[in-house]
Amino acid sequence: MAAELSSDNPDVSSCPDDRHRPVDHYENFPVASWLCPPRLRAPVAAIYWFARTADDIADEGSATAGDRLADLLTYRNDLHACLQDNTGSGRWPHVFGPLGRAATTFDLPAQPLYDLLDAFRQDVEKTRDRAGYADRAELLEYCRRSANPVGRLLLHLYGVTSPVALAESDAICSALQLINFWQDAGLDLRRGRYYLPAEDCRRHGLDPADPASWPAHPNAPALLRDLSDWARALMLAGAPLVHRVPGRAGWELRFVVQGGLRILHRIERLQWRTLQHRPAVGLIDAPAMLWRAARM
């Protein structure tokens, strides 16, 4: 997911099933950092590990699509049990123990958690069926469930609930998800995931039914440039949220926004050829990100 979180978890290695054993993840957008208020680090980490573990069930290891869907259903039932203060399957105590405490202490809304699981199930089904997305509207609907819930849960923790703030959060989270797609375009293609909207492909002369032809197509960089511009516009539309989130969290959000924009900069430096190469942000980018965050 683009709206990635980052945290330390002493129980991350205790996975009962090698098919879904957690792996080391490249995190673009750390949230549970030293900028996060200490009282919120535990619930932020709980939300992270809930989403991260579900993502691993859907994405990592050697399980079949059928096994993944069955495990996601068990995971969903365990979420329901957790929110009702009941005992679930017991397979993921390192997830649902902290999440249950966070849900009780901070009255976490349930729907964003269920939305995330719906998105992970959709990923499995799309990959199984080797299906893509018809247009930008369908892709944004996926982002509404795969990315936007994280921002809304975090805003809930910070007590920011205005409709304007929620809309800006949705814009930022959807932008982060899209940026992650364009950054990982080649990697996702090799994994059988097709996030380039068919409508955009056709507009640039690419055949949506022949993904294998995309990397060599001369118009592919123009397509990725167009999609990157769309993600940038969404990010900038949501950027005023940094002034609505209080204290250190507002500064954290500035770095989230600048991290996404910096990846778009790296994509541009590659001339939008992310079907062949994956750009990354590193320490060399930190001064520019810090300068731009301070000027927001």
TrEMBL record:
InterPro entries membership: HSQ_synthase_HpnC, Isoprenoid_synthase_dom_sf, Squ/phyt_synthse, Trans_IPPS_bact-type, Trans_IPPS_HH
Top-level taxon in the UniProt lineage: Bacteria
Protein's UniProt keywords contain Transferase: yes
Molecular-function annotations in GO: geranylgeranyl diphosphate synthase activity; squalene synthase [NAD(P)H] activity
GO biological process: terpenoid biosynthetic process
Keywords: Transferase
Transferase found in the keyword field: yes
EC numbers, comma separated: 2.5.1.21
Matching PANTHER family: BIFUNCTIONAL LYCOPENE CYCLASE/PHYTOENE SYNTHASE
The protein, known as: Squalene synthase HpnC
